[in-house]
Amino acid sequence: MCAARLSTVVLDARDAHELARFYTRLLGYEMRAEEPHWVLIGPPDGAAGTALAFETEPEYVPPVWPARNPGDQQMMLHLDVEVDDLEAETARAVAEGATLAGEQPQDDVRVLFDPSGHPFCLWVRAAQ
Fold first, then answer.
1. DSSP letters along 5-52, please?
2. CATH of the domain at 6
3. Transmembrane region positions (predicted)?
4. Are 25 and 6 contacting, i.e. CB atoms less than 8 angstroms apart?
């Protein structure tokens, strides 16, 4: 048995508080801790899920997705968010401040950018 477990994913942003507010709305998370340059959010009490933290980095440069040219800022990670209704949740994410990516590589996935430019994917489980 492994004693280690993933508890939190941390994303840099020019404004940690703005990005935290976006993800609390998108995921139904709640604020857990706030400092001037750092915010922690997570699922409501008792709910399963990984916490997210955001750290203000004044020199943050959004990644380019898909990166095609030498020197493009590379994506370090992206979040996959499972949804029941892809079209409705895509529309809601955009209404909350996300931007739909111009390139969509799969029919059952929507690539979007959060307000800081991090790519994230909404996806639906394929019918079995």
1. ---EEEEEES-HHHHHHHHHHHHT-EEEEEETTEEEEE-STT----EE
2. 3.10.180.10
3. none
4. no
For the stretch 21-71, pLDDT in tens is 999 999 999 999 999 999 999 999 878 889 999 999 999 999 888 877 888
Q: Which amino acid is at 126?
A: A
115 shares a domain with 72: yes
**Which H helix or E strand runs over 93?**
helix 86-96
Tokens of 82: 């499972």
Angle at 110 between CA 108 and CA 112, to 5 degrees: 170
The domain tally of the chain equals 2
pLDDT by residue (tens digit) across 13-35? 999 999 999 999 999 999 999 99
Same domain, residue pair 70 and 123: yes
